[in-house]
Design a protein that fits this description.
about 30% helix; alpha/beta
């Protein structure tokens, strides 16, 4: 797959396509003109994960409505939309992190390589090794840098000898672009690193168990621009080996790192398209209104 397109257009600079309605979008939910189904290209031929008719509820409140979406192999897909639109809730459903919330329930079909990830017989610990997650705030364990990365391989029995574990730790830190910065202090606390380094340590910890999919929930929102640039470069490098889904509030970041972009609005998946198209010629007026800053 080609690397993510580099788009310089900011949300405010995006031109309004002639086929998109220009009238002001009404924000009252029952007045919004939702499409009958997601417009664009929500499905792909070479899917790593496939979601069909996914609904998510918190007690009696519905947060996600009938989402149909494929995530392609070695694809970076960005999930964007206003705060509270359901993008993080949907992302967390992809490795059953919502299971930790008692009042949350998920309906529909969610499959990884054709396997139902909500099958009661499925080992959730194993699933989360295959579908790893990097959270908004860096959360290194109160352990050494080495032990942070080695935790998963030890838990899953991926290394029987210290030599094997050393190799996994070094390889993971190299992939996360952190090895040269920490190789001389591997046994110092991971919490002593800078914020950007901590986030890359968390990425190294995630990929140490050789996941198939990496989920990232606003991984740069707590970082400065320099650290953010390093994480974005890392996403581009990792996409050759992993399937990546990233939630971001930054449309510029979505434009820089992703191949396809999915726009969520009030729990509904409005549009999925090639990232360049979403930011220059979206198919739906709600997408156009969001990227041009008319709400959000």
């Amino acid at each position: 797959m080609e690397t993510a397109p580099k788009i310089n257009n900011t949300a405010q600079q995006a031109s309004t396509p002639p086929h998109v309605a220009k009238e002001k979008v009404k924000m009252t939910e029952n007045q919004i003109d939702y499409p009958d189904k997601t417009v664009g290209l929500p499905l792909v031929d070479d899917a790593k994960m496939s979601m069909r008719d996914v609904c998510v509820y918190y007690a009696d409140k519905q947060a996600i409505y009938d989402v149909n979406l494929d995530v392609g192999k070695n694809e970076v897909i960005a999930l964007i939309g206003p705060s509270g639109c359901g993008k993080s809730t949907f992302l967390r459903s992809l490795n059953r992190m919502n299971d930790t919330i008692d009042i949350c329930r998920v309906q529909g079909s969610l499959k990884l390589e054709g396997e139902d990830i909500y099958d009661p017989k499925l080992d959730v610990v194993e699933l989360r090794a295959r579908v790893g997650m990097v959270f908004q705030k860096p959360n290194p364990f109160p352990k050494s840098i080495y032990d942070n990365v080695a935790y998963g391989p030890r838990l899953h029995g991926l290394a029987n000898k210290r030599y094997d574990l050393d190799e996994i730790v070094e390889t993971s830190l190299r992939k996360a672009g952190l090895w040269n910065e920490v190789k001389d202090r591997l046994h110092q606390p991971g919490t002593g690193l800078s914020g950007g380094q901590q986030q890359r340590l968390c990425i190294a910890r995630t990929i140490a168990v050789s996941p198939e999919v990496v989920l990232m929930d606003e991984p740069c929102s707590a970082l400065d621009p320099i650290a953010t640039a390093k994480i974005e470069e890392l996403i581009d490098e990792l996409s050759s080996q992993y399937t990546i889904a990233i939630v971001t509030h930054s449309m510029q970041q979505a434009a820089r790192v992703s191949h396809r972009t999915a726009y969520f609005h009030l729990g509904r998946l409005i549009e999925v398209n090639d990232t360049r198209k979403v930011f220059t010629s979206p198919d739906h007026q709600l997408t156009e209104a969001y990227i041009t800053g008319r709400f959000g």
